[in-house]
Every structure is written in C-alpha cells, then in structure tokens.
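Cast an eye over this sequence plus tokens and walk me through the fold:

***
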Amino acid sequence: MNSNPAQTRVAAVAVLKLLRPLQWIKNLFVFAPLLFSVSAWSFHSFWVTFAAFLAFCFAASAVYIFNDLNDAERDRRHPTKRFRPIASGQVAPWVAALAIVVLVALSAAVLIAAAPAALGAAGAYLLLNIAYTLRLKHLPVVDIFCIAAGFVLRVFAGGLALGVPISSWTFVTTLCLALYLASVKRHQELLRVDPTQERAQSCNSIR
C-alpha cells in the first residue's frame, strides 16, 4: 500500500499539536529545587532532575489529550477550539486514547529508571488533572487552585528526584506564583469569551 506523503505529514503535525510541546515549558518548575540547592549540583543531580522534567512532559501531554477527548463535542461548537486535532477529526479518538497509554507508560518508565522517588508526585499530578478535567475545572476558584497545585507538584517532584526537602519558603513562593499565573490565564480566557469586557479592560489599561 502506497502512503500519501502529504497525508502522513498532516497526520504527524496533528499528533504533534495534540501533544502541545510548547506547554512543556511549564515543567521547568521541576528544576527549581536544583537551582536552590547549589551544593547538590552534579551530573547525577542534573540527570535525575531532567528525567523528572521529561516524565512530566509526557504526563502533561497525556493530560492535554485526555482533556481534548473529554471536551471533543463541546470543542466542535467552539469558534476556535473546533480546529483542535480531535475535535476537527484529524486524530481519531482511538489514536488519542492509545497515545495517552503510551505517554503515561513512558512517564512511569523514565521515573522508574532514573528518579523513582518522584513517582508519587507524578501520579498525584495525573490524578489531580483527571479530576480537574472531569469536574474541578467547572468550579470557580477551585479550578485556579488545581492549576496552582500542578505547579507545586512539579517542584515537589524535582525535590523528590534529588532527595532534597522542599522548604516552606519554596512552597509558598511557588504556590503564590502559580496562583498568579492561573488567575491571569483564567482572566484572559474570560475576556476572550466576552468582547465587551475586553474593550473595557483595554480602556482600563490605557487609563
């Protein structure tokens, strides 16, 4: 059977979009314990932290795909989200489900091989985001704290991988920064939903 190179390229791009690699930058929070533990710096320390970062990239992609699968019908009625790979039909649901299984398995395999102490944090991250997708994201305020908790779990994963305890200062700083980022993100989403609010906000910014 001859495969169409153009179709193969389109499918590959769709799968890549489904993974949302640009969002992996959030997982750099995993490196926070290493940055604040100068005495722990070594090749091994960097390696186990990088492994935790890579595992969270796989886990985050699995979470995004799960969310897209859950919201596919709703996304099809949205002016911009209808172009997402699953909602648009570029990626079949069974392919997306298989990708989730593969990504979770890869995340677990990386942690088992290089940073088994961080398995609990990664598991908690996955469970939190499943609950977030199914229910918690529809609860005001609770949704913001769930997003913030995801960032905190990343930091804890980095600390567990290194074997370095997370100080209360690091915890509070991460939580406050994450709450701020989550609040800004939610505010921007609300503005996109209501253009009138966006115009009002522009006026307030100018003022």
Summary: The domain at 23-206 is CATH 1.10.357.140 (Tetracycline Repressor; domain 2). The chain has one domain: 23-206. The two ends are 64 Å apart (CA to CA). The longest helix spans residues 43-70.
